[in-house]
Structures are given as structure tokens and as C-alpha cells.
């Protein structure tokens, strides 16, 4: 489960990267210097999603344990990218809600499976009774 103070995982790094419009505008706020920006550009020229991921990865490497969801929200906010900040905030809140709902959902699914299993057994019993009481075909016998 993602918490504001946890480090950004690889999956969320890719999700965040997809929501960055122009990583070069964000890079100074990530603390990337000119050499690092050039390195990111050259790392996978033409693949902008990969460049966005690499920019975030460099920020994570520079900041270590401080490269958290909360810290990235601050970066996006300072960069005046409200949509990105809101998206990352939603990743954290959504993960928390998903974790809380999962137990209730599992209980609901288990109840549904049990009810369907019972219904299938009843139908199977009913069909077996019909088959056993059906007249025997004299042509087939």
C-alpha cells in the first residue's frame, strides 16, 4: 500500500511518467542539472515516456529515502503542475481506499461464490432426478 511517506515504486513511477506533459519543464524542480538533463535526453532519444521515467529515476537516486510520494507532490506543486500533483495524490489515496475495500470485496465475492455453488448443486440434483425418471428410449436401448 502506498503511503505519502513511502518511496515511489516502479509501477507508479511509470504511471506518473505517463501523466507528465513535458519532463524538461519539470526537471529543474526535480533538481536535475544541465548535464543530467542532457543524459536523460540522450538515454533514449525519441522515447519520451522512457525519458520521463528516467528523469524521475534520477530524482529518486539523488534523493534516496526522501524521494517519496509526498515529496513528488511538493515538486509538482512548486512547478505549478496541479494536475500532476493531484494525480500523484490520487495514487496514494486510491491505494489506501483499494486496500480498505479489498477485504469487504473479498467477503462479498466469497458469499456470491457460495450462493452460486449452492444454486448449481440444487439444479444438478433437480436435473439428475429428471433424467432418472425419464422414460427409456426403446430405439436407443
UniProtKB/TrEMBL annotation:
Q: Which GO terms describe its biological process?
A: signal transduction
> Gene3D superfamilies from the xrefs?
Death Domain, Fas
Q: Give residue ranges for domain Death.
A: 22-92
UniProt name for this protein = Death domain-containing protein
Source organism of this protein record:
Geodia barretti
